[in-house]
Amino acid sequence: MESDGQTALPPGLDLLWGRRERGRKGPKPGLTLEAIVEQAIAIADAEGLSAVSMARVAKDLGFTTMSLYRYVDNKDELLQLMWNASSSGAPEIEGDDWRSKLRSWAIGQWTMLEARRWILELPIVTPPAGPQALAWIEQAMAALDGTGLSDAESMGVVGLLSSYTLGEGRMAYDAAVAAERGGQSYDYAAVLRAVAEEHTYPSIHRVAWSGEIDDPEGSGEEESYLFGLEVILDGIAARIERAERSS
Length: 247
What we know:
Layout (H helix, E strand, L loop, with lengths): L12 H4 L16 H15 L6 H8 L3 H4 L6 H12 L11 H18 L15 H13 L7 H30 L7 H8 L6 H9 L10 H26 L1
Helix pairs in contact: 2-3, 2-5, 6-8, 6-11, 8-11, 9-10
């Protein structure tokens, strides 16, 4: 806890919520924290996260690297600010009920990750509690109002959907990066047919030879994601139904 009774926020979040003075070493005319973050994101969008550095951002903005340190302590902090700002590109969710709204919310996150793959490289060392990140989470929480779930359950549901989307997105990203680098891609069904003997793994053997999971070109990533999303939504629906019965 801070001496004034406020909870100490992680680096980056303290800037976003005005808990730390911006430009405390003397602001540089014409330079702002927002401009720094926007330029860092522009670089990442165009060239990937590896191209982002304090020196590169400063150069593109026409300032010295030391000028940036008046606003941001280090690159790690800049990355956290980029993570929060990336939520600003998320679309408004659509739908007439909680299920369609949550589906729209999750697909919106998936679409955002496809457009900005560098997000999947960001180290997640602070909670998603910046203003823009909270605005995105609020949409999903609001979709669950009136469902009978407790506030804690609703927050858990939102976290589950986000974790699932991030996990699926990261696997798709890793596969894409490997392909771009000339790595060998493998058809999972073909691998299973080679190693899953029928008498030891009868269920796996059956699905491997059924043809239902054949996907040699990796074209089924989105379909796989949507299938898992519907399974999760089915589980949420069952929990909401139990909550309605108990009330």
